[in-house]
Design goal:
two-stranded antiparallel sheet, Rossmann fold, 20% strand, five-stranded parallel β-sheet, 7 strands, alpha/beta
């Protein structure tokens, strides 16, 4: 697997927990990232992201006034948004089949339940950002076509 350039990866961390955003930001900075932006909910992120291209989104599921599912569905439905094709991982406080189903339906590339280690984050992001991503239009909604590793 090819190493990605964290230094040239624009990252959005969207989570209502200031402490968790700080932890994830620290992980990303330790990998060499220099463009790390934080917001506390989906609506704030959509305002921040207006006209800005992000490569990676690390998103909490349960936030007010806009949760991570609605935020990503909204972003994936904006035809001219520069972050529409950003790689996105959901960071829920728990993971079950329903959370996974909702994440895939919203256009996430995967689920990374909290808490996770820096190594787990790095491995998952390196794998996702180094592989070619396939997309499918479904009306106005753009979603990733997920494949199993090795396919």
């Amino acid at each position: 697997m090819a190493k990605i350039s964290w230094r040239h990866t624009a990252i959005g961390i969207i989570d209502d927990s200031t402490d968790w955003r700080r932890v994830v930001r620290g992980m990303c900075l330790s990998f060499g990232a220099t463009e790390v932006f934080e917001t506390s909910d989906g609506a704030d992120f959509l305002r921040l992201a207006a006209g800005r291209a992000f490569d990676l989104l690390l998103v909490d599921d349960d936030m007010l006034p806009m949760d991570g599912f609605l935020m990503l569905r909204s972003l994936r439905s904006m035809a001219d948004h520069p972050s529409r094709r950003a790689t996105a991982l959901l960071m829920p406080g728990h993971s079950d089949v329903e959370v996974l189903r909702k994440a895939l339906h919203a256009g996430f590339h995967g689920v990374l339940p909290k808490p996770f280690s820096a190594q787990v984050l790095s491995d998952r992001v390196e794998r996702l950002l180094s592989m070619p991503l396939v997309w499918k239009e479904d009306g106005d909604f753009l979603h990733p076509v997920l494949t199993k590793p090795g396919q």
